[in-house]
Design goal:
alpha+beta
């Protein structure tokens, strides 16, 4: 069942908006000085800031 334009979809959108604003308002505790592939990194709890884009490690299958 898809929830499109119903009460659960509206609540999910409201929850996502709340979470986004909460995260955007937090002060970063870690600066990633060489962002890029962050797969396999052990990051401390908190908010990270990256000067450019990041992406998780992607396993390549032959």
């Amino acid at each position: 069942m898809q929830h499109v334009a119903d009460a659960p979809a509206a609540q999910a959108q409201a929850d996502l908006t709340t979470a986004y604003h909460d995260a955007a308002g937090r002060t970063p505790t870690t600066n990633l000085t060489s962002p890029g592939n962050i797969g396999g990194m052990a990051l401390a709890p908190g908010v990270c800031r990256a000067s450019s884009s990041t992406e998780p490690h992607r396993h390549r299958h032959p």
